[in-house]
């Protein structure tokens, strides 16, 4: 008698397939199902909820027409198991991009904040390596780069969730972690790296045997951010060490389309998938956006009143520098508003930062943060995003408000604008697609200035915090690029100091030195990153940029520029150091005469030595002092000139050496490029004496160095030596 076959679901059937069978099936399914390049699968939609896969409404064949759920995708059962039960139905960006990315195309994906871009790249990363049967011996198969440590951590968690049934290995490489040595030992055997650019480059520079020549898929999350000037040097150095033949996925809510940027990444016919391009608004529809005009000296009062009025809400507050974050957090904590307060900025230790991020995800509280939290972070259920300091541009605004109203949830945002920043409101209203922001009138806030000033008296350490907050805020305005919006001269500076509780307005030296300021656009764009990794790269790039994510306020200033020395103690300290340095220079550069001793062993001053040489008896003929001084001066000039020439020659030699090195490397790399697949790893190895400083080779920088060196020897040596000689003359007179 025939036994009836047990009924089983499609999923179970698939589970019975061996890995090899499943991969074969997926490959053929993907191959058969590749839509025409350029076809946006959403264009065929919306499919009816029960549409069978492969049939559109009109009955014609289109493999993705009916796909709405993850389970309908040609992805492994292990990934489906990782997605369920949390993720069932795809979001727009997932539905639009996955068919393309799964079949290996390069993607430029743009979709509103909180719309699910993370899964849109995590799934193809896992699937690509799974289908290639990637194992520990294959090394790094995928790199996911994020601009900040917290975001990298978050992506890593998502990767772990979705990939938990796979046997791939993954690692989180971010700066600030102490176990670098342990990391170095493991990193080469990891299959997927989630990292910040600095730490990845640190491994490329320092870790023996670390190489990425087999890389299959590269992802840049917050791609426009990573491609901007702030990360340029790191990214270029990283890209130069990756194989050109790879899949590249770029995702962001504010995507770049710059041909130059894309050329840097060698994208091949990328699909530009912008699912919300047709949308009426650039921000989530469920987001209510308000702006309020508030004078600078009323900002803290208004913020305090706002917090007191919303004690049951989870509030994320953006300030422009970490010193402001510190100050506002510290004083408000002392004033006890009745809701837990937290702060997040790039100067905090990595473990504290991570803990704060996690706590804020869990707890109804107020988080004061710099832009380190503005991109990508998925704090759950934030009720309000309050921007106390105006964002530097529209993308920054979009990312900040995007921390609320995520994935179909509602949220509210409030932007404080000073009267001088009204232009920002006009700009926000003018963009296409629109930002539906409304202007609201502020109620009379409760004043906390008096309380703050008594706090500063009681806690003198706060005084310093307040001063620093004051100075860095004004500097940040001063250094902003958009002068239509940011104008430090229009601000009520004295009132601002009072509002922070300061009894004396700190000096603003940078305003006086305005004329000396060279404000390159890269320096003012954003702050930094990822103090990320205190890797060499940052020193090398001291010229380069001011980035935002992690090192904000210090970054507001070009650190190498003496015209931006901080106020107060630090300024004094640095002046002292400068003086010392000058003296040192002089000590190493004597006056161009041999040191002579008299019979008692005392040093004979140079002029006296000169006189001795001329008269033979050590006596000085006052009538000839001027003449001798002139001679000495001439001698010094000649010596100075020689020094300069020598220094320049040294620089030139150094540059030539660097150039030769680079040329050799390029030639080797080109030779490698023409080789077959098998030579890939060799190619990379050669290309990678890598790890040496390709980024040193910057003619412009060298010129700057030359000029600086020349200037230094002019201004320091000659002038000081003249002064010293005069002093000597005078002392001899007397
Ligand atoms: N298909 C889905 N079903 C249910 N929830 C989802 C889905 N996709 C994503 N989510 C959830 O939506 C939230 C936002 O997702 P994600 O962080 O990927 O957004 P994003 O587009 O990357 O945002 P941002 O632009 O701010 O980086 C997350 O909590 C995520 O778990």
Number of domains: 3
Globular, elongated, flat, extended or rod-shaped: what is the shape? globular
Name the ligand types. adenosine-5'-triphosphate
What is the averaged pLDDT score?
A: 74
Which strands sit side by side, in order, in the main sheet?
5-6-4-7-8-3-9
Full CATH superfamily name of the largest domain: P-loop containing nucleotide triphosphate hydrolases
Outline the biggest β-sheet. 7 strands, parallel
CATH architecture heading of the largest domain? 3-Layer(aba) Sandwich
Low-pLDDT runs of 5+ residues are 1-15, 34-57, 59-63, 517-623, 672-717
Note the gap between the termini: 130 Å
Q: What share of the residues does DSSP label as strand, in percent?
A: 5-15%
Overall strand count: 18
Keywords:
734 residues; alpha/beta; Rossmann fold; 3 domains; seven-stranded parallel β-sheet; 28 helices; 18 strands; 46% helix; binds adenosine-5'-triphosphate; helicase; RNA-helicase_DEAD-box_CS; ATP-dependent RNA helicase; RNA helicase activity; hydrolase activity
Structure, briefly:
Pfam families: CTE_SPB4, DEAD, Helicase_C. Helix content is 46%, strand content 10%.
3D architecture notes:
With 734 residues, this protein is of the alpha/beta class. It folds into three domains: 15-274, P-loop containing nucleotide triphosphate hydrolases (Rossmann fold), CATH 3.40.50.300; 290-497, 3-Layer(aba) Sandwich (Rossmann fold), CATH 3.40.50.300; 525-573, no CATH class. The protein contains 28 helices and 18 strands. A seven-stranded parallel β-sheet has the order 5-6-4-7-8-3-9, with helices on both faces. Strands 12-13-11-14-15-10-16 form a seven-stranded parallel β-sheet, with helices on both faces. It has a two-stranded antiparallel ribbon with strand order 1-2. A hairpin with a 5-residue loop joins strand 1 and strand 2. Helix 9 (197-206) crosses helix 11 (232-239). The chain is globular, with a radius of gyration of 32 Å. Mean pLDDT is 74; it is low at 1-15, 34-57, 59-63, 517-623 and 672-717. Bound molecules: adenosine-5'-triphosphate. Adenosine-5'-triphosphate is lined by residues 87, 89-91, 94, 111, 113-119, 253, 376, 378, 402, 406-407. Residues 669-683 have a biased composition (Acidic residues). It comes from Musa acuminata subsp. malaccensis (Wild banana). It catalyses: ATP + H2O = ADP + phosphate + H(+). One of its GO terms (cellular component) is nucleus. Its EC number is 3.6.4.13.
